[in-house]
Write a structure and sequence with these properties.
Largest sheet: none
Strand content: under 5%
Mean pLDDT: 85
Radius of gyration: 20 Å
Distance between the termini: 28 Å
Low-confidence stretches: 2-11, 208-213
Number of strands: 0
Length: about 210
């Protein structure tokens, strides 16, 4: 009997540590996101002033972006598991999967596009601008729909979600509306760090024991 109790306690501790890691990585992602833009800005200034170059680039900002995507995917997987084990909720499983696939695809296509345009520069200057606008519009529309549906599904659920989860749901809807507008999508970028902070707090603060609600 004592061995069974010890095993259960060990399993609970592992589960708690897993959520804790996901929570702290979500906070890291929140800090990393603005760092990507700051690094990209510095990278662009150096290229323009030192080399007189103002075209597409591959540099430290892209490395940070890849790292951010990897962390984000892990956080989303942990968050999905948390919803399963804490609330027995599977209502947004597919949407979280779409969000993960979207993150990976956006990273691959973005870096690939920059690489191709970099090789063809400056002949591709106009094409780069047009393709970049089309690429961003499609990706913003798609993630906007995913975010809105995720927020609505959470709000409509009869589960007794915590206040933080409901804030997360509302935040997703607001971000999604900004993203599908395309024109206002840059404002959605301001919500990304807050989005990860909320997930981090959910994973760090809430009890990890499964409850049947």
């Amino acid at each position: 009997m004592e061995n069974v109790i010890n095993s259960l306690e060990g399993a609970e501790e592992m589960e708690e540590n897993r959520y804790r890691l996901g929570g702290w990585l979500a906070i890291v992602a929140a800090l990393l996101f603005p760092a990507i833009f700051i690094t990209g800005f510095i990278q662009t200034i150096i290229a323009e002033r030192a080399l007189g170059y103002s075209g597409p680039q591959l540099g430290p900002a892209d490395g940070l972006s890849i790292f951010f995507t990897a962390i984000g995917v892990y956080v989303l997987i942990t968050f999905r598991r948390f919803l399963h084990e804490r609330y027995e909720y599977h209502g947004i499983d597919l949407l979280i999967t779409f969000s993960i696939v979207w993150s990976i695809l956006m990273q691959i296509v973005g870096v690939g596009l920059d690489g191709v345009m970099l090789l063809a520069w400056p002949a591709s200057k106009t094409a780069y601008m047009v393709i970049s606008i089309i690429f961003m519009s499609i990706f913003m529309l798609s993630i906007g729909v995913i975010d809105i549906l995720m927020g609505i599904r959470l709000m409509q659920s009869r589960r007794e979600f915590s206040e933080l989860l409901r804030v997360f749901a509302v935040l997703n809807i607001v971000a999604g509306i900004l993203e599908v507008s395309v024109i206002l999508s840059p404002l959605a970028l301001l919500i990304v760090p807050v989005h990860f902070v909320i997930i981090g707090l959910i994973l760090l603060r809430e009890k990890t024991e499964a409850e049947f609600v």
